[in-house]
Amino acid sequence: xxxxSQHPSWVICKSGTSVKIECRSLDFQATTMFWYRQFPKQxxxxxATSNEGSKxxxxxxxxxxxxxxxxxxxxxxxxxxxxxxxxxxxxYICSARTGQAAEGYTFGSGTRLTVV
Amino acid sequence: xxxxxQSLFLSVREGDSSVINCTYTDSSSxxxxxxxxxxxxxxxxxxxxxxxxxxxxxxxxxxxLNKKDxxxxxxxxxxxxxxxxxxxxxxxxxxxxYNKLIFGAGTRLAVHP
Lengths: 116, 113
Hints:
Chain A contains no helices and 11 strands. By secondary structure, chain A is mainly beta. In chain A, strand 9 and strand 10 form a beta hairpin. The radius of gyration of chain A is 13 Å and the shape is globular. In chain B, the strands form 2 sheets. In chain B, strands 2, 4, 5, 9, 10 and 11 form a 6-stranded mixed sheet that branches. In chain B, strands 1-3-8-7-6 form a 5-stranded antiparallel sheet, with no helix packed on it. Chains A and B meet through strand 5, strand 9 and strand 10 of A and strand 4, strand 5 and strand 10 of B.
């Protein structure tokens, strides 16, 4: 089946630095990928929709300059958290559409970001 | 706007059935989903149901859909300790030019002996 690989699975960084998270579709091409954020014991909140070869579409309230998304190829989307602060600490999960109608969303294993 | 609601917590005894309920708002959702999330992990698709179906059974899982009331439920038969996890229902909502998955808050299922 379709597999989405997300890397790293966890990262600790200092305040003010930037962190890049990668999301790869391993055995299929993903024109569209989605980035979610999940706070402890809460649901997944969609941050943005990443489109290959074009600008990402951000959800309301998400700072596009802080969460930079790049989808340069059909198998890779990256999320860069710029100038990270402790409040950015969260669990970030990516998802990709496989193109198959009903089962069309495959999720990465998530990245736990801790900003100290 | 789109909104998906679930009860937050459910505790059941091992071997009993679990029923997790969900209400959604987008009547145009073609599919509705149940995902499972174990601690520190991503989401695993458990099952889904097409919007023109009332019920779908898949081994221990039974999904019931009441489209009129926009109510979705997941029944897990013979619940095991390995079923302890957070269960999310999700609807597809078309906005901003894309079909997007909108999740409920998740129901934490605790299975005790």
